[in-house]
Amino acid sequence: MIGVTHVMNVTKRINCPEFTTKDTSTIRELMAPANSLICRQSLAEAALPPGASTLAHRHPETEEIYYILSGSGEMAIEDEIQSVQPGDSIGILPGQRHQIRNNGATTLVFLCCCVPAYTHADTVECDALLDPVLHIE
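Below the sequence we write its predicted structure tokens.
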């Protein structure tokens, strides 16, 4: 490609500060427009302590993938709820209401890949999709 400079772009997790998103999860953007040369997508690590859940929400413009690294949880997309565990990938289409809850005894850690890149402005809170009663496994 003419005019493209080839530069390896590596970010270090330790240099990625944690922050709370509009859905109340704690994340660190591992690679995103704010901290890398990437401009169309973002990759974040999210963590939910036992019993915690995100607020139900949707992203009108963003397609999202969750990839479960550790812990266990319940994932709701629209009216469907499924248990999730390490190794599971969850695809979330633009506009779909979704919510995830940690129903395990350890922190639920997952990766979030967003296209276009995550922004608070593209997060719209919705009514809860998961029953507030929680039974930790």
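The longest strand covers residues 63-70.
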